[in-house]
């Protein structure tokens, strides 16, 4: 018998956040590894797996056939959640894309802000924009988790409809200090985001453009806050 395939650390961490028995929609499924693995391991019975492009969706279909779980996965060729009903999407995973795309997918479908849905989100870039979008548009981030794969750190967000106190500029960049963030990786993450922020702030300051002044003030505030958070974190570690 073939041994079941394993997931990468990033997707494994996502899989572990899926509540057993949930009605799941995996948006942007690509290779389909996440839904196939979840069904194969009995975590969920039924999944809707969607992708914008036929090529990735056919890879996912082939993987499901290969592992004999096609009857438990409904494949949809569609943009985001557009061909998925709210009843099919108690839990939604959107992973491996840019934060802006994830925000657009949520924004395009009004029911994503109704109670009863939960989101497991992992962006390859643009985490700041995604956090800002969620906190300003009626979602609440309940936890954040850091995962390392090779040299790369990934953040996985859990969010649901609801209000949350507005994020500060620093929190937009590094998340609100939450239990899931109490990992040894936190220090490295703070350092990495601080570097990004300093570079962005320096670039804007050098450009000297008047229209960038407001953005520059936000970056400078974020740099200040993240430096403080980093110091507090390091003291707490000692
Ligand atoms: C890099 S793959 C990520 C695959 C998998 N979710 C993961 O985390 O490994 C991104 C996939 O998202 C799909 N995608 C991008 N924008 C999308 C959209 N608006 N709706 C559905 N799928 C989308 C792409 O076609 C691609 O297959």
**Measured on Cα atoms, how large is the radius of gyration?**
19 Å
* CATH topological fold name of the largest domain: Rossmann fold
Taking the alpha carbons of the first and last residues, their distance comes to 50 Å
Oligomer: single chain
CATH superfamily of the largest domain: Vaccinia Virus protein VP39
Helix content: 40-55%
Question: How many domains?
Answer: 2
Q: What ligands are attached or bound here?
A: S-adenosylmethionine
How would you describe what is shown here?
The protein has helices at 9-17, 33-40, 54-66, 99-107, 127-136, 169-174, 185-207, 213-237; strands at residues 24-27, 47-51, 73-77, 91-98, 118-125, 139-149, 152-161. The protein is an alpha/beta fold. The chain has 2 domains: 9-167, 3-Layer(aba) Sandwich (Rossmann fold); 187-237. Residues 11, 27-30, 50-53, 56, 79-80, 95-97, 101, 105 line the site of S-adenosylmethionine (SAM).
């Amino acid at each position: 018998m073939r041994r079941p395939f394993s997931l990468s650390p990033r997707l494994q961490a996502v899989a572990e956040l899926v509540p057993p028995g949930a009605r799941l929609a995996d948006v942007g499924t690509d290779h389909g590894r996440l839904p196939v693995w979840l069904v194969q391991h009995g975590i969920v019975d039924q999944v809707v797996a969607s992708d914008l492009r036929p090529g990735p969706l056919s890879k996912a279909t082939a993987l499901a056939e290969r592992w004999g779980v096609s009857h438990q996965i409904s494949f949809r060729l569609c943009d985001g959640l557009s061909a998925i009903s709210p009843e099919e999407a108690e839990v939604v995973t959107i992973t491996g894309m840019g934060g802006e795309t994830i925000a657009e997918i949520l924004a395009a479908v009004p029911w994503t802000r109704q109670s009863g849905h939960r989101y497991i989100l992992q962006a390859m870039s643009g985490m700041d924009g995604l956090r800002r979008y969620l906190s300003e548009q009626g979602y609440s981030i309940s936890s954040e988790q850091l995962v390392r794969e090779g040299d790369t750190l990934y953040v996985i967000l859990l969010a649901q409809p609801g209000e949350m106190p507005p994020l500060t500029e620093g929190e937009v960049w590094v998340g609100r200090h939450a239990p899931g963030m109490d990992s040894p990786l936190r220090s490295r993450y703070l350092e990495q985001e601080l570097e990004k922020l300093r570079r962005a702030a320096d670039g804007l300051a050098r450009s000297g453009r008047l229209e960038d002044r407001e953005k520059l003030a936000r970056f400078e505030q974020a740099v200040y806050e993240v430096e403080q958070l980093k110091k507090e974190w390091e003291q707490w570690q000692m």
